[in-house]
Structures are given as C-alpha cells and as structure tokens.
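Following up on my earlier thread - several people asked me to post the actual chain instead of describing it. Fair enough. Here it is, all 228 residues.
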Amino acid sequence: MGRSVARLKQKLNRALIGTGLRNPGSRNRHDWVGCGYHEMKRQFQVTYLQNHGLSSNSTFLDFGCGTLRGGIPIIEYLDVGNYTGVDVRRQVIEEAAKELKDHKLEDKRPILLTLEEAIGQMTDTFDVIWSFQVLIHMAEDRLEEAFDLAKKHLEPNGVFFATALIGEFDESEWQGFPVIRQSLEFYEQKAAKVGLTVASRGTLDSLGYGRQDGKPSDVCMLEFRHVS
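Reply from S.P.:
Thanks for posting it. Predicted structure:
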C-alpha cells in the first residue's frame, strides 16, 4: 500500500513539475533546480568526466541539464557543437539559454532540447551521457524512458554516468520533486531490460564531491555501458 501511494505522489509531482505549475518561484534561475550551488560542485562534474575519459572532441549528452549550472564548464571544455542538453521542463531550457548567453558561450553552438523534443527529434549518438542528480527524482515510468533514451543514443563504446540514491526503496519530497531511493539490483534490472550493464563506482563522498553541510552522502555514481 505504501509503495502504491508513493508512486501516485511521484506521478502527481512529475506532472506538476513538467508543466511548470510547481516550481520554487524564485527570481534566481538556478532555484528551478535547487539553491545553494557553489563552484566546488560545478567543478566536480567536469573534473570527474575528464578523469573518466571525456575529451574535448567527445560528443556529450547532458540528460537533466537544468539551467546549465553544471553544464557551463563542460560546454567551455568541449569542441564546438559537441554538447546537447535535455530537460523535461521547457521553462528550464529557456533559462538555460539565458545562462548560455550570460556566459557568452553561444558560439559553442550547444543544442538545448526538452525531453519531448529529444524523443521526437534527436538522432545523434554520444560518446558520453551524463545524468547528475536526476535519477533520484524519477518515477519508475520516467526512469524507463531515460534508459530507453540512453540505450538508443549511446555510442557502442560509450559510457552513461548517472548518480542515484542506493538503498532500500524510500520516497520523500524536496522542493516539489520526488526523492527516490532504490536498490542497485533495481537499476541492474531496469538497465538489463534495454541491454545495458551497470556498476557502482562509489559514493560521491568517496569520489571527492562532499556536501556543504558536512554530512556523509549516500548518493552513488553509476556507470552504464552496452552489454558486450
């Protein structure tokens, strides 16, 4: 019964967030995807990616790109035209375009799409797919869509990195978003259905991410690849 109620709440949250009816309502564009962001967290993403195979000529899909608070240094690093960002909410993509302009990176020609546009229009494949702090907010049906998208658009030798809360199933809420914890076995089963393997690369703490409040993190970095 508890899990059924949680799923209903997840679907309601997803609908409200996806349509823009639920948002933090701040003047700060980054409050669409959470406040308190600082340079260390931004730098972690590009450094981790560079240390795990990202080169400037890699083709890159940022799944759940938000307002580009983490995407800006990645766009700066990549060659022209190699970055594609996708987010479920059109309002967030519009704010991401403003962030791009503010940083004078329009000449890098990144592609910014809503999830609906990506599913209907995107034909490219990518060396690296990145989904940072996104799976933790996904109801089961949306997670399956994400894995379908990753399978379809990941290069044969490509890698899909994603963070997830690992443990016994639990569902809570943060700023209108569902926050979902699932077992590693759950992700293994979902990945296997679309022909992907998954391995945990450790908690974000162990990878040098850290938390502003000093508390230990149980968010893990997962690495998905095509079944060989």
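The mean pLDDT is 84. That should answer part of your original question.
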